[in-house]
Amino acid sequence: MSSRRGTTLALLGLLAGFIVVLVVIDRVSPAPEGPPSSSYATTPLGAAAYASLLDRAGIPVRQVRTPIADREPREGETLVILDPDVMEPEEADAIRAWVEGGGRLVLGASSEVAWIEQLLDDPPRWTSADSDEHVPLVPIADVRTVVSFDRTGFDDLGGLLPLLGPPRTPLAAFAPLGAGHVTLLADTSPLTNRGLARADNAAFALSLSGDAPVAFLETVHGYGVSRGFGGLPTSVKWALLGLALTSLVALWAAGKRFGDPEDEDSDPPPPRVEYVDALAGSLARAKPEKEHT
């Protein structure tokens, strides 16, 4: 029984140690993760640094994981949408209605947005840019040069006003829409983690907020309202997983049989004293008698 208990405790100890190591590794050296241009993402193509920059500048920041069609941004917020993966037609209509009602939208995409015509009556077209260096075409505080990586710009601006050159293929453009306005970016790389520190990219990123609170729309990157197990913090998930594995090991140890099963119908072994007496008697009877000479 003691051997069995020792084996169980050893297994539980190894399992607990394994969980502790995983948690420590996750805390000390978390791997970069997240979809491109998401304000949650810490990869080079993510925008977590942008959200952090706004926060350090005293600009309130939040991530929106509820569709705009279900809940509009808060009053006075600037809605930021970067490289949207998906956009349902009713969501695009809701965003346009919100902007027309006085909202401010920053929409950045490094390639043509399929639903742009639902947002703007006369949208621009994406094209290859002449340069990766862009200078303001209108005054922008503390911005002299913005550097991009993807070399995309706008062609045929339609009703938009260029903000960042070159004039033929501007990187950024502005469009009034109802009581609100839209700022379009043809290349989101200046706002990403790898690009924010280049030239005056950080100052340009701050200017896009308009000194207003910023809401990053994360539904376009696959994030939604988490409920149930998915809504728990990662550390709690690890703890629950550890408890589940520990329970399985305990059940396995409790149910494991060491040796052959005992026959319940067999007679129990005799007491030790009776056994020794019986054995001594058997030996005495089996001992040959001494021969008489």
UniProtKB/TrEMBL annotation:
Listed InterPro entries: Class_I_gatase-like (IPR029062), DUF4350 (IPR025646)
Domain DUF4350 residues, every copy: 39-208
Family annotation (Gene3D superfamilies): 3.40.50.880
Pfam families per record: DUF4350
Superkingdom of this protein's organism: Bacteria
Protein's recorded name: Uncharacterized protein DUF4350
Organism encoding this protein: Solirubrobacter pauli
